[in-house]
Amino acid sequence: MPDADPHAEPKAPGDIELKKAPQEPLAPSSDGQSGDGAAGGGLEGMIDLPVVKNQNKNRRGQRPEWLRVKLPYGETYKNVLDTVEEHDLHTVCQSAQCPNMGECWSKGTATFMILGDVCTRSCGFCAVKTGRPEEAGLDWDEPRRVAKAAAKMDLSHAVITSVNRDEREDGGAPIFAEVIRKIREKQPGCTVEVLTPDFRGIESAIETVFEAEPDLFNHNVETVPRLYRRVRPQADYERSLRVLEMAKDAGLRTKSGIMVGLGEERDEVLQIMDDFVEIGLDVMTIGQYLQPSEMHLPVESFVPPEIFDWYKEVGEDKGLDHVESSPLTRSSYHAEEHV
User: Fold this and answer.
1) Using the 8-state DSSP alphabet, how is residue 7 labeled?
2) How many CB atoms sit inside 10 A of residue 280's CB?
3) In a domain, 285, yes or no
4) In which domain, by residue range, is 266 found?
5) Under 8 Å CB-to-CB from 105, ≥6 apart: which residues?
6) How many domains does the chain have?
7) Is residue 314 part of a domain?
8) What is the pTM of this model?
């Protein structure tokens, strides 16, 4: 075999031939090893597919073919944008640079981000602005504006998320509750999903949201516990699990999600699934991390679509009601199907 050309350009992350995935996960062999040679006991049935390493961590434009998305387009997209701007609202679609914005907005759906557009936390993956909000108070007219926009867009499912407001004891929870009530008042029949912060674990704040009875309570753990110090330095994995467990105990349908490609191991993802099953979580989302800017954490690897399919199968086999898993999955992707 000839030596590699030292002057050759390195392959882009997408320039790799993937092995065809079997229809079902590979069964463990008789010696306790999974079909791909991984040790048994944690990675049984692992699909024999490579993870595409990102060899150009600071060159954000180089992505595999499966991560290409359509640009925003269409009259419906324009109408959503006009509605958001008319009512002086923020969307996480814009603030977090969601890759699905074109698809979702063209279908007439959007995720509203309340409590301003400045977050008091500095997560290494997030594109939302970080700092201390200029206005310490709450915008009590915001619930009315969100509900009016939801009605104008004739939404059948609304997703409400927010920045962290750690400078407040209530974390902005009263606004979450009021948005839920106003949407039901202005757009009867519209289901409401909330994607909340952890409210620093303050039970009175969390229960304020519960009392408004959202149709789906979502709080993301975002990544595996080992990576929290780097990815979510002001958060705590066990605290996030506790918030989700409280929601389940309150009788709510629950949801949480993670990103992959930040340096996690597959057995760590499976452990999160086990933790979710233990607390009775209903819906899990898994998507590829994409670096918003060179100031954010680099992508460690691009996970092939077949691995996302495998995660979905394994998670649902473990007992999760639904696993939404694909490279472009985000918390609100296909959210109307999760209620």
Assistant:
1) T
2) 15
3) yes
4) 223-233+249-334
5) 72, 76, 77, 80, 81, 93
6) 1
7) yes
8) 0.76
